[in-house]
């Protein structure tokens, strides 16, 4: 079984390969248009064969894109996380262009070695490499590759900012027309956030909030959640019904979030003098999902289930618990439960006439 985190990384890497593939096909066709029926490159005299190029160039470009995408997603992206949008694109694009340049130089050296039959480290071979690396064809290829890298980096940063799923939905137009669907929601709110912000100062509090959100991200990914909104110190997490009910992911996500913060106790106490805690409300129901906005596009959910979930979460303090789950969701969860639940009875939510039965998850 592929873990949700690995699957997410694969989805992030694949677009790099696709973009390099598209750019390579464009390049190959442009090259064909410029060279026409010529069987060699005028500037270098190297042989040119369109039938070979139309296959080999896209294949090599796709593999290069997937390689760079893997580097980006698994390693290099993390090094520049604290830089601005523009600086990330500039520095990462520079690194990738250097990697590609070195690769092309090594390929050129190896090609000359095969053609000349002399030592790979002979002066004759590296003089030829030096001449080629300063030639117009080589520099023009680097400019084109640089453009591809910048486009892919721009995509990567936009995807990171708006969310991979949201960007994919914009591309496919899934919610261009409103769609009715059933979803599970978790409204997760930091306890005593106002008091904490006043005691440590708003700038330092904001730094803690960034750390807090980062530490809660892994469980959301692992249990197939989708971050709908960050509202101050509150996170609204959503699941498609199938994903949320599968292995009781929605509940396990909450429990994993608690465990993730507990593991970082020493870090929070050392950096901020306290360990933040949270409370959460769970509910499920029908929402209408669709694109909205003119100046700024967004994909939003509308429906009574959101208001109900927020009000359920508001009751956590009244019941003295850190989570409340509606009866509607409890009835849909997979049994037997791998955790203990407590029936808290019926209550009337603010602004609603009908009563709702609430439960609380006690432990695993």
TrEMBL record:
Give the stretches traversing the membrane: 12-30, 50-77, 89-110, 130-151
Looking up SUPFAM superfamilies in the UniProt record yields:
Nucleotide cyclase
Q: Which GO terms describe its molecular function?
A: adenylate cyclase activity
Q: Which InterPro entries match?
A: A/G_cyclase, Adenylyl/Guanylyl_Cyclase_3/4, Nucleotide_cyclase
Instruction: Recite the UniProt keywords alphabetically.
Output: Membrane, Transmembrane, Transmembrane helix
Q: Which PANTHER family match?
A: ADENYLATE CYCLASE, TERMINAL-DIFFERENTIATION SPECIFIC (PTHR43081:SF1), ADENYLATE CYCLASE, TERMINAL-DIFFERENTIATION SPECIFIC-RELATED (PTHR43081)
Originating species: Flavisolibacter tropicus
Supply the Gene3D superfamilies for this chain: Nucleotide cyclase (3.30.70.1230)
Which domain of life does the UniProt lineage start with? Bacteria
The biological process GO terms on file are: cyclic nucleotide biosynthetic process; intracellular signal transduction
Q: Where is the Guanylate cyclase domain?
A: 184-313
Pfam families for the chain:
Guanylate_cyc (PF00211)
Q: Which residues form a coiled coil?
A: none
Name recorded for this polypeptide: Adenylate cyclase
CDD domains, from UniProt?
Answer: CHD
